[in-house]
Amino acid sequence: MAGDNEKRRAAARCDDCGSIGLVRIWSNGRIEPVGGRDICDCADPDLRILGGERIDDQQ
Asked: Superkingdom, according to UniProt (predicted)?
C-alpha cells in the first residue's frame, strides 16, 4: 500500500484547450501541476494523463 507522501509525475493534457503540462499525482488522489503553475487558463480543466488515464478530480 502506498504511503500518503508517495507521488508520481505524469504529463497531462487539457481536453478543453489542448494545453499540455506536467502534474504530480499523490497517492491520496491530490493532483498539482509541477512548478506551481496551472497547465492552462481554463476555469475547470478537463485533464487527461497522456497515455489514457483521466484525472477527474483536481484537489
From this structure: Archaea
Tens digits of residue pLDDT in 26-47: 888 788 888 877 889 998 888 8
Nearest to 2 by CA among 28, 24, 30: 28
Q: What is the DSSP letter of 54?
A: B
Phi, psi of 9 (to 5 degrees): -105, 150
- The CA-atom distances, in angstroms, between 16 and each of 7, 27, 28, 33, 45 are 25, 26, 25, 17, 7
Report the distance separating Cα 19 and Cα 25, nearest Å: 18
- Give the whole-angstrom CA distance, residue 46 versus residue 14: 5
Question: Taking the model in full, what pTM does it have?
Answer: 0.67
**Using an 8 Å Cβ cutoff, are 54 and 20 in contact?**
no
